[in-house]
Amino acid sequence: MEQLAPLIAASINAGTPLLLAAIGLLINERSGVLNLGAEGMMLVAAIAGFAVGYTTKSPLLGFMAGAVCGMLMATLFAWLALRLATNQVATGLALSIFGAGLSAFVGQRFVGLALPAQSTSVPLLGDLPFLGQALFHQHWMSYVAFALCLASIWFLYRTRAGLVLRAVGESPESAHALGYSVRGIRYLALLFGGACCGLAGAYMSLVYTPMWVEGLVAGRGWIALALTAFATWRPARVLLGSLLFGGVTIAQFYLQGMGVTVPSQILSMAPYLATIVVLALISRNPDWIRLNMPASLGKPFRPGAS
Fold first, then answer.
1. pLDDT, tens only, 257-299
2. Among its keywords, does the record have Transferase (predicted)?
3. C-alpha to C-alpha distance for 275 and 278, rounded to whole angstroms
4. Among 52, 110, 134, 246, which is 20 to 30 Å from 216 by CA?
5. What pTM value is reported for the model?
């Protein structure tokens, strides 16, 4: 039990950026837009958040900068994919490549710098045995991520706006015929997704590894994309999936600390191997995926086109 509490706490810490990014991407995909640029958005937000946080000594401003940069990257994607009706897959991949290059160029002067580690504890609850150490010694952004997950459940299934968003994702032609602005709704969904990916990237450089190195995100944007399919586009399952993948990520360090004689490269591959295995298992039942996937996902919509 003494070892389980810090393992749970570390899993939540590792799963927080995945949860933030995946919730944003889920809202994107529920509106019918497939944005594969999560990795690039997170990288740009990570360097922006670290640069602002390091310069101003204010992590809050760093998170704000990360969210803004994520929204700017999402705006670029929205202009290309929604206004110009470019291929969403190709545009998302280009955005990821662009973000990787831009973050590496901008971050050159910040390589090797570090921020002080941030330790927080919820008053009173943090002193509880086991649960206090496991759940209530997290950074405040972890609780924001949980709150966003709960809010997205309420929004999608308990509000009219959420119903309209899901309707746009299922049949944009019908939503347009009823007078809804499909492009406008998808644009707002992309902005929200960009802000969430921005917060996830900033969390990586400000909290999880409070420093900047090139490629800091290390594929977590792609794992977040896989999480949305793993969760069949449902927020509650995204939460469980992020904790699962966070636990797999942290397990490698615990195994190394316990002296398990497995090459470190194999342990580092574990989160990505888990992603492949999960996707392979899901793909065995394409009808189940088709039943839960938004019908218009990845398909461009042109108002007035027959």
1. 676 666 767 767 777 787 778 777 776 777 767 778 899 999 8
2. no
3. 5
4. 134
5. 0.92
